[in-house]
Amino acid sequence: MEKNDKKLNQKDEFGPAFSFSKEELLLELENLNRMMAAKDMQIIQLKEKRGEEIKELQAIKAQLEEAKGILEIKVEAKTKELRNLTESLEKQIKERTKELQEKVEESENSRVALMNMLEDMEELRRRTEQEKEKTLAIITTFSDGLLFFDPLNKLTLINPQAESYFEIDLNASKQLIGEKIGDLRKNPKFEYLADLLGPKMKKIFRKEIPMKQNLTLEVSTVAVGNEQSKVGTLVILHDITREKTVERMKTEFVSIAAHQLRTPMSAIKWTLRMILDGDLGPITSEQKDFLDKSYVSNERMISLINDLLNVTRIEEGRHLYNLILVNLEDLTSNIVSSYTEIAKRKSLALEYVKPEQKLPQVKVDVEKIRLVISNLIENAIKYTPVKGSIAVKVSVEEGRVQVAVKDTGVGILKDQQERIFTKFFRGTNVMRMETEGTGLGLFIAKNIVETHGGKIWFESEEGKGTTFLFNLPTAAV
Amino acid sequence: MAKKILLVEDEDLIIKLLQKKLVSEGYDVTIASDGEEGMKALRQNKPELVLLDIVMPKKGGFEVLEEINQDADLRNIPVIIISNSGQPMELDRAQRLGVKDWLIKTEFDPKEVLEKVIKQIGK
Questions:
Q1: Confidence grade of residue A317 (pLDDT, cut at 50, 70, 90)
Q2: Could you tell me if B14 lies within 8 Å of chain A, comparing CB atoms?
Q3: What ipTM score was computed for the predicted complex, to two decimals?
Q4: What is the DSSP string of chain B?
Q5: CA distances from B5 to A436, B15, B110 (A)
Q6: Which of A273, A280, A367 lies nearest to residue B111, judging by beta carbons?
Q7: Alpha-carbon distance B81 to B62, whole Å?
C-alpha cells in the first residue's frame, strides 16, 4: 500500500502530464492496488513454496550426508575386517605350513617304523610258518591216528595213520574234510567211531573199537582250547592190537593154569577131609592137628585160585551173568548168617540190620553178588581186631538198593585210598595183619557191581573203621 | 539090596575117595573112567544114580548127559555133576539137560557129596 501510495503520489506529481479525472485515477489506483495485492499474494506464496523446497532440499542433503557418513563407517569397518581376515589367513597358512612340515617329518618317522614292523612281521610269519610245518610234520608222522574236529564238529584234519586205520586213500580223505561227525557216519568205515563220539562229540577216554580182525583201536578225545575259546576236539586213535593179544594170551594162560591147579587141589582137599573125618581109619590127635592145618592151607590155595579165575574171567568178558529177579534182603541175611561162626571165633559182633522199608527187587547174577557181599564181609572180619563189631545193613537210598558193611577195623590208609579197588593192591597196614590175600577181592567186587550198573565206594578212617557200600539199580517194573 | 551108583570120573584119587565113602555107607558103586565107559556101564547096569564129571577123555560129561537125555530108558536116572569148574553157562546147560545137582569139587567134600546122594535116592 505504501508503494501504491507512492505511485499515487508520483502520479500526483506528474498529474499535469496526464489528463485523467480523479475518479478514473482513483479507480485505476484501486485496480493497481488490487493487482499489487494479488501479486504480493503470489509472491508470498512463491516465497513460501520456495522455502518449502529449500527445506526439502536441505532434508535431502542432510539425508545424503547421513548416508555418506554411514557408508564411510561401513567401508571403514569392512576394510578393517578384510585386513583382519588377511592377517588371520596368513597366520593360519603359517601354522598349517608348520604343521605340514611336522607331519611330513612324522610320517617319515612312521614310515621307517612301519618298515621295521613289516620286517618283524615277516620274521614272525616265517617263524609261524616253520612252526606250522613242524606241527604238521609231527601230526603226519605221528604213530597214532589223529582226527581234528572244529567247534562245530566238522572234520578239519585227518593224518595218514588214521587214513590207514580206516583204509581210505588221500582223495577219499580230502573229501571227508569239512564233513560233520554225523555225516561221517554214512561212511561204513566210520560208523563205529561216529556212534561212539555221538553227534555232540562226547568226551571219551580209552574206549576200545574193534576195526577188523587183528586191529583194535583205543579212542580218546582231547578238547583243545578253553571254555572261552574252543579250538576243537582232537580224536586220538591208538593201536592196542598187540596189548589185546598179550592180554588174551595171559588170560588164557591163567585160566588154563587155574583149571589145572584146581584138579589136584580138590583131590588133596577130599583126601584130607576123609582122613580128618576118620573115613580112612583112626589118626592121632597130633596127626589130626597137622592135617587140619594142611586142610586150611589147601583151602587158602583154592580161594586164591578162584580169585585168579574170577579176575581173568572178568577181564576176558567171559563173566556171564545169569540175571534173575531177587530180593537182596534174603540173600544178604543168608550170607551174614553163614559168617556168624567165623566172626564168633574172633569175638566179633556180626550184626545184620534189617531194612526199614520193603526192598524193591533187583535183577542180578546171584552168585556174583554173593561174591561181592561175601568179600566185603570177609574183609571186615579179617581186618577188624578182636572184640570189634561188624554191621551189614540193607536199605533203599535214592531209589537204589544199598548194602553197607560197616566195621570197627584198622581202616584204609589215606594215601592208599585211591588204589583200593585196583588189581593186586593190598593195603600196607592189612598186609601186616594177614599175609594171605591176592588183592583181587575188591577189584572183582567193583567189576561185578559196575557190570550190574551199580556203584561201589567206601568211607574210612584210619584206626577207627571202614564202611564199604554198594548200590544196585532196582529192576524196572 | 544095595542101591547102585555109577561114578564116571577120570581122576583116580577122587574115584578112590568117593568109592570108599559111598561103599562105607552101603552103596554099590560102579566105576567108569571116561564118558564112553560111562555110557556102556549105564546101559548095562541101570544104576539108580549117576555121579558125573564134566572134563574127561574120549567123551565129556555134557555128551554123556545128552545121550542119557535122548534115551527113554535112561532119562529118569538122576544125575549129579561133580566138576572142577562151574560157570553159569555150564550150569544153565546142565539144568536144561535135567541134572539134579552140580557140585564144584573144590567147594564140597566127600561128606557133602554123600549128603546129596542120600537126598536123591535115600540110604
A1: very low
A2: yes
A3: 0.85
A4: -PPEEEEE---HHHHHHHHHHHHHTT-EEEEESSHHHHHHHHHHH--SEEEE-SS-SSS-HHHHHHHHHH-TTTTTS-EEEEES---HHHHHHHHHTT-SEEEETTT--HHHHHHHHHHHH--
A5: 40, 12, 15
A6: A273
A7: 10
